[in-house]
Write a structure and sequence with these properties.
Blueprint lengths: L7 E3 L6 E3 L5 E5 L6 H13 L4 E3 L17 H14 L3 E4 L6 H7 L2 E4 L7 H8 L5 E4 L6 H12 L6 E5 L17 H8 L4 E3 L1 H5 L5 H10 L4 E5 L17 H13 L5
Helix pairs in contact: 1-2, 4-5, 8-9
The protein binds phosphoenolpyruvate.
The site of phosphoenolpyruvate (PEP) has 9 residues, from loops.
């Protein structure tokens, strides 16, 4: 029931942003933190389009070990600095339980990615970190398994968990993964946790980000998280799914036109 659904607050006292049933939260930023300039430009684009939380990866769990793996701690420093400069709370992925303390030092919210959804030691460490957690659905995980992963965090006393549907692996090759849009209302019928949608990583295609965001709004998601880049052609990670400023504004208009379902 709407009234029983939780709101998770992200950011430090005085500039906290809600993710929950009373708002539609727009999170945006670069897939990967590459340089201070690229991160700042991405954050400014995101903010001027209406995003209220900045995303950006400093640790990138790539399919190929030869692909760009992220800047690590220097990337966290850039992200936190840009968050400070723009006034946006930041969410960033942690891929190794040993890195949880340092990521929690810089980030306002910890992200657990699709490849680590069932990494129980990492979930427990994130649960102990004292920061809200964005838990992406494993690309081969059932909804039940995803909710049980959230329980690993909750069991440590951290109920500030936001679920993120980011596509599942199917036989369809036109998109990188298949956005399981029905997961949003299914989760909301069983869990009090907020649930957002990542159309960028689900599809891997920027032309699908606006239509899939509209679908997310239509089914009652609590927000969307999208990739942006000032120059997607040179992006070190996932350029084909990153939006430019003009495309981001189109998304923002779509988001504004469709108020959240209450
Ligand atoms: C990301 O958001 O940067 C990411 C790698 O997403 P996912 O874990 O959903 O692939």
């Amino acid at each position: 029931h709407h009234a029983d659904r939780s709101t998770v607050w992200v950011g430090r006292e005085g500039r906290q942003v809600p993710i929950g049933p009373d708002s539609f939260t727009f999170l945006a930023g670069p897939c990967a933190v590459e340089t201070a300039e690229q991160t700042l430009e991405s954050a400014q684009m995101a903010k001027s389009a209406g995003a209220t939380i900045l995303r950006g990866g400093a640790y990138k769990p790539r399919t190929s070990p030869y692909a760009f793996q992220g800047l690590g701690v220097p990337g966290l420093e850039i992200l936190a600095g840009v968050g400070e400069a723009t006034g946006l709370p930041v969410v960033t992925e942690v891929v190794d339980a040993r890195d949880v303390p340092v990521v929690a030092e810089y980030a306002d919210m910890l992200q657990i990615g699709t490849r680590n959804m069932a990494n129980f030691g990492l979930l427990q460490a994130a649960g102990d970190a004292g920061k809200p957690v964005l838990l992406k659905r494993g690309m081969t995980a059932t909804i039940e398994e995803w909710l049980m992963a959230a329980e690993y965090i909750a069991q440590r006393g951290n109920l500030d968990v936001v679920l993120c549907e980011r596509g599942i692996r199917t036989f369809e090759p036109s998109t990188r993964n298949t956005l399981d849009i029905s997961a949003v209302p299914v989760v909301q019928a069983t869990s009090h946790l907020p649930v957002i949608v990542d159309p960028s990583h689900a599809s891997g295609r920027k032309d699908l980000v606006v239509p899939l965001s509209r679908a997310a709004i239509a089914v009652g998601a609590d927000g969307v998280i999208v990739d942006v880049h000032p120059d997607p052609e040179t992006a070190l990670c996932d350029g084909p799914q990153a939006l430019l400023g003009s495309e981001l504004r189109e998304l923002a208009q779509a988001v504004r036109r469709l108020p959240p379902i209450v």
